[in-house]
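Recall from the previous lesson that a structure prediction takes nothing but the amino acid sequence as input. Here we apply that procedure to SDR family NAD(P)-dependent oxidoreductase from Phytohabitans rumicis. The sequence below is the only information supplied.
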Amino acid sequence: MTDSEQTSVVITGANKGLGFEAARRLGKQGWTVFLGSRDEGRGRAAADKLAAGGADVVLVPLDVTSDESVAGAVRLVREHTDRLDVLINNAGAPGNIVAPADATAEEVHAVYDTNVYGPIRVTHAFLPLLRAARHPRVVMVSSGGGSFAVVTDPQQPVSKMHELAYSSSKAALNMITIRYAQALPEIKFNIATPERSPTASSPPPT
Ligand SMILES: NC(=O)c1ccc[n+]([C@@H]2O[C@H](COP(=O)([O-])OP(=O)(O)OC[C@H]3O[C@@H](n4cnc5c(N)ncnc54)[C@H](OP(=O)(O)O)[C@@H]3O)[C@@H](O)[C@H]2O)c1
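The prediction returns the following tokens.
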């Protein structure tokens, strides 16, 4: 095991999209990036890309829906460090957009497994390593779609996107984050809600 003064971060679902971009930016800042990916091949390709740019990156096979996979991820991270400064629960499943009348519990469950139980599974497993850090932080990547205010605002396109699974999973994640923050004040919990940049076809709200 090697420990250092470098800030360390675990990012779930970091083989592409926002997770990959966060990994790239934090790697550039000299952080040790534990790049989570449920698919080892896709994760290896992403990690190699960042390593080629000079990042200190370790591929961590991590499927947030599997207790076994998450336990393996913790074991691997422990081989490199005895503390974890930051955990970013980024992995997310959009699910299919199914009208509420047609949605089944099975479909909703699959989305919750990634977006709700996933962050709980991962946060719970990494708590001992987080608690060993001086200023531990957990970031939950949520969505404006999980906000009651946004979803009930007729000006917001998401108010007309009729589905159950994704928005309710992110609303649950928001509450879970608040409850963690209240119960574990020694760890800073943050909710991040990414937004697409405004374009000419979608001007910013006035
Ligand atoms: N992009 C946006 O505009 C936006 C807006 C609001 C919120 N968000 C949230 O931001 C986060 C990232 O979104 P994104 O746009 O970057 O999505 P993305 O490009 O689809 O990437 C999602 C990542 O999550 C991974 N993932 C899915 N299920 C997983 C599982 N069971 N275990 C581990 N990893 C899993 C995917 O892995 P695979 O490659 O193997 O599928 C992928 O790496 C999500 O939580 C999303 O809800 C995004």
